[in-house]
Amino acid sequence: MLFIKKIAILLENLYDDKELLYPYYRLQEEGFNVDLIGTRKDTIYKSKNGVPIKSDLSSQNISAKDYDALVIPGGFSPDYMRRSQATVDFAKAMNDQNKPIAAICHGPWLMISSCDLSNRKLTGFYSLQVDIENAGATYVDEEVVIDGNLITSRTPKDLPAFVKAIIKGLKS
């Protein structure tokens, strides 16, 4: 029996269009099942540019055991994501199970709220450097940083390297 990996992409208002849509479609092109997870199921969330996307599921009704990886797009949405205890708990469980967590731009905000980042290396939007360092991690200014199960990138211009790293990690 062929096992198809299942990916969760988190969704909240004010997400960055490119940082959500690029991984969403590329991961599907690679044959992965991809769910858009909001704080509420079947809810329309709008990007920072007003692009609407509907959630498939709610973070309250999913389990880390059912997913192989987590993608956290940036924009201002990670600040809303970390206000949901169910979303924080899901990300924490993914990390506790050592499953890949990929975050771009402001995505590390959710990682800071849900993961033990002590002695880890991460990147993100440059303004997050202090937040990342205050969480105990080392900030690295590179297009993609891989530290164990954590994959991080800085901005939309890093999307090709970011998504390649996610795909490589899932296929290895």
Structural class determined from secondary elements: alpha/beta
Number of helices: 6
Classify the helix fraction into a percent range.
Answer: 25-40%
CATH class: Alpha Beta
CATH architecture assignment name: 3-Layer(aba) Sandwich
Give the percentage of residues in beta strands: 15-25%
Physical arrangement of strands within the biggest beta sheet: 5-2-1-6-7-11-10
- Whole-number radius of gyration? 14 Å
Shape: globular
The total number of structural domains is 1
Using DSSP, what is the number of strands? Answer: 11
Q: Which parts are unreliable, with pLDDT below 50 for 5 consecutive residues or more?
A: none
Per CATH, the superfamily is Class I glutamine amidotransferase (GATase) domain
Q: How far apart, in Å, are the first and last alpha carbons?
A: 19 Å
Order of helices and strands: EHEEEEEHHEHEHEEEH
Average the pLDDT over all residues and give the rounded result. 96
Largest sheet: 7 strands, mixed
**Any idea of the CATH topology?**
Rossmann fold
What does this structure look like?
With 172 residues, the protein is α/β, with parallel strands linked by helices. It has a single domain, classed as Class I glutamine amidotransferase (GATase) domain (Rossmann fold, 3-Layer(aba) Sandwich). Helix content is 33%, strand content 23%. Strands 5-2-1-6-7-11-10 form a seven-stranded mixed beta sheet, with helices on both faces. Helix 5 links the parallel strand 8 (121-122) and strand 9. Helix 3 (85-96) crosses helix 4 (108-114). The radius of gyration is 14 Å and the shape is globular. It starts with 5 loop residues before the first strand and ends with a helix. The model has no long low-confidence stretch (mean pLDDT 96).
